[in-house]
Amino acid sequence: MIKKKLITAVLTLTVAAACFSGCGKKSPLDPKNPVSLTVWHYYHGAQQAAFDTLVEEFNETVGKDKGIYVQGYSHGSVSDLESAVRDSMAGKVGSETMPDIFSSYADTAYEVEQSGVLVNLSDYLSEKELAEYVDSYIEEGKIAADGSLRIFPVAKSTEMMMINKTDWEVFSNETGAALSDLETIEGVVSTAQKYYEWTDAKTLDVPYDGKAFYGRDSMANYFNIGMRQLGSELFEVENGTAVLNIAEDDLRRIWENYYVPMVKGYFGAYGSFRSDDVKTGDLLAYTGSTTSAMYFPDTVESENGRYTIDYIVMPAPVFEGGEHFAVQQGAGMVITKSDERHEYASVEFLKWFTQAENNMAFGCGAGYLPVLNGANSTEVLDKVIEEQQIEVGDKTYDCLTIFFDEMKGVQLYTNKSFKNGSAARRILEYNLSDKAKQDRQAVEEALAGGASLEDACAKYISEQAFREWYESFSSELKKVIEQ
Known about the structure:
Blueprint: H1 12-20, E1 35-41, H2 45-60, H3 62-66, E2 68-74, H4 78-90, E3 101-104, H5 106-113, H6 127-130, H7 135-140, E4 159-164, H8 165-175, H9 185-200, E5 214-216, H10 219-229, E6 235-238, E7 241-244, H11 248-256, H12 259-264, H13 274-279, E8 285-289, E9 299-302, E10 305-308, E11 311-315, E12 325-327, E13 332-335, H14 340-353, H15 356-363, H16 378-388, H17 394-406, E14 411-413, H18 421-448, H19 453-457, H20 463-482
Parallel strand pairs: 1-2, 1-3, 5-8, 12-14
Antiparallel strand pairs: 3-13, 4-8, 4-11, 6-7, 9-10
């Protein structure tokens, strides 16, 4: 914390006010009487191991010196953790006592904040300290009605494009397709059509058996970031209240550049994640989180055999003519109200956890972006890797370093939290994607019956089809928001 200084009487009142806001708050901790903190999270595997290692290091060093002891508990999945938090808040029989700190996405944190149980972090962090963090990460955490901070950023991610380089080069050499074509979403659609037709031509005796080229992991991100790139926001939020912005022209481009190529077979979605589809050879490329890089396969295993593949990492494509916005996502940590010692100690732990070397040690192996402004660079990443002997996969390393370079010219975006935000996001996630899968299946049945691709798709990609979807989609969102 900022040290107190001798000042003139004229400045006494100013400094006193600053102290009350957290800038000069005296530590209530006593190393001889340590405070114990519980942290609930959803980390597992390598992430949990990294978190546990850092907690142990904190307890043996800074925590020991200040009188703080941290215990971390994994609650499995994100949904399991959210259920445990809700049960604790409701005081259900058999539920655990609310933790001092827990991992939370913004929508969930917003719901919890309505119950008044979250600590105002602005009371414990000075403006100077807040300025050290990426601005958009701090803004995302200001979910309180008065605009004060409730979510402490600890690890963020964005989206990148991953490509099967081995099979791409064969396709590119034969057709002239270029990586530069994949910089825009419209270019991806055009390339996907070219790939479908190229693979279809390989079996002249079997018509319309072309393969899908591309897919994406998060449809909610596609809607939110797509609309923002096109100059609007689907949800215009003020003081926790959302106003639905049904920009028809923008939604038409969303529809035309996902649903239409899905129905035609140029795009695809088969397994749980698109990296699974690359592994089975059903896709050549996808847009997904930087954290998915570690799951990008080293081999393709299909009915035609098993073979090794290389990879390419690119920035996620942007709508043609759109502004360069990129997805900002990832859970933060929130602190529950208790007493000054526990709250103060919780903030001290999170400040330590987000220091560059610690934040990198936790996140870089999984593709998380560091939350401090000064840590988002290849130089810092290389330094931490070397000093702490951290093993980082090549794909993850490339995702991070490419984004560090891209970050200089990109704006990170996530929509603000609002009531029923989680329910609205589920509509974005499944409404259009489920319809696309269903209608693609009907098209495939028509093709099997002898119809041409044009005739089989006609009724699904008509103006009337768009209007019907647009009205239905808008109605679903309005119902959720107006509840």
